[in-house]
Specification:
By secondary structure, the protein is an alpha/beta fold. It is built from seven helices and 13 strands. Helix 2 runs parallel beside helix 3, helix 2 packs parallel to helix 7 and helix 5 packs parallel to helix 7. The longest helix is centred in the middle third of the chain and has 17 residues. The two termini are about 20 Å apart. The structure holds S-adenosyl-L-homocysteine (SAH). The site of S-adenosyl-L-homocysteine has 17 residues, from helix 7.
Length: about 250
């Protein structure tokens, strides 16, 4: 399987492509690819380009485009993860695993019990790199987007704006009873899902009430309380399983 790289669209100049920066270093120095080797580049437009490397110099790699096709491997379900901000390494883990599992949008949210803040431009760039590397490694066809951090109330408002198709909005809440994730998904067979996970300290009653009043479904994940990052990854996996995304495409 050729290595895959998400690149800025400007690097593509059919019939050739020129790669620089970290991507060029990765190809030449880390992977030690040679002229003649093939890679796949993705410009996040929904296309993937098959490229044969022609020239590898320090900081600069050139190739010839030898094929093009629709980018594959994207889930049919559009899953947005509204994740309460967490301490750095936990939040990064959620971005990485969420990307592998097929999340299409991440929205960091600031909650009443948030300890961690959204951070500056440097953190944003680091998060984007983590998402890109996870998307390349897991063979995603598109990069998940990383939205600017929002206070929870604004995120709820944004999520519940009428859109086509209307997403199923879920808030797993440790105090919720009755409605399970499975039931909520089975009721609607949604084409899009937005899921809100709390920070380390969980959602407050006021936050859960706000979500309920906005029409979101409060669901339980069972009697065991999961850490926020476990809950995020477990819910993404359970949703993808439940909507039959875990199928073989090799037929
Ligand atoms: N307040 C809790 C921990 C919150 S867990 C405490 O410290 O006791 C962090 C987030 O994970 C929650 O806000 C919720 O979104 C989700 N979560 C974890 N376990 C859950 C469960 N059993 N049911 C529903 N949501 C859960």
């Amino acid at each position: 399987m050729p290595h895959r790289f998400f690149i800025p669209p400007a690097w593509l100049t059919p019939p050739t492509v020129s790669l620089s920066g970290e991507t060029a270093r990765q190809i030449k120095t880390v992977l030690r690819l040679q002229p003649g080797d093939e890679i796949i580049v993705l410009d996040n437009s929904g296309l993937e380009w098959q490229v044969q490397l022609t020239e590898l110099r320090k900081g600069e790699v050139h190739g010839q485009i030898i094929g093009q096709q629709a980018a594959s491997n994207e889930p049919a379900l559009a899953l947005t993860l509204y994740q309460g901000l967490l301490k750095a390494e936990k939040f990064e883990w959620v971005l990485q695993k969420g990307t592998e599992l097929g999340v299409s949008r991440f929205v960091p949210t600031l909650c009443q019990r948030s300890v961690a803040g959204p951070g500056g431009a440097q953190k944003q760039a680091r998060w984007e790199r983590i998402i890109r590397e996870a998307a390349e490694q897991s063979r995603r066809g598109k990069l998940p987007s990383l939205e600017p951090a929002l206070p929870l109330a604004a995120a709820i408002q944004q999520a519940s704006r009428p859109t086509q198709p209307a997403p199923l909005l879920l808030m797993p809440w440790e105090e919720a009873a009755g409605l399970t994730l499975k039931m909520a998904l089975a009721e609607t067979h949604p084409p899009a899902v937005g899921v809100f996970i709390g920070p380390e300290g969980g959602f407050t009653l006021a936050e859960a009430t706000l979500a309920r009043e906005a029409g979101m479904r409060l669901v339980t994940l069972g009697p065991r309380i999961l850490r926020a990052e476990t809950a995020a990854v477990a819910v993404c996996a359970a949703i993808m399983y439940e909507v039959d995304e875990w199928i073989s495409t090799a037929f």
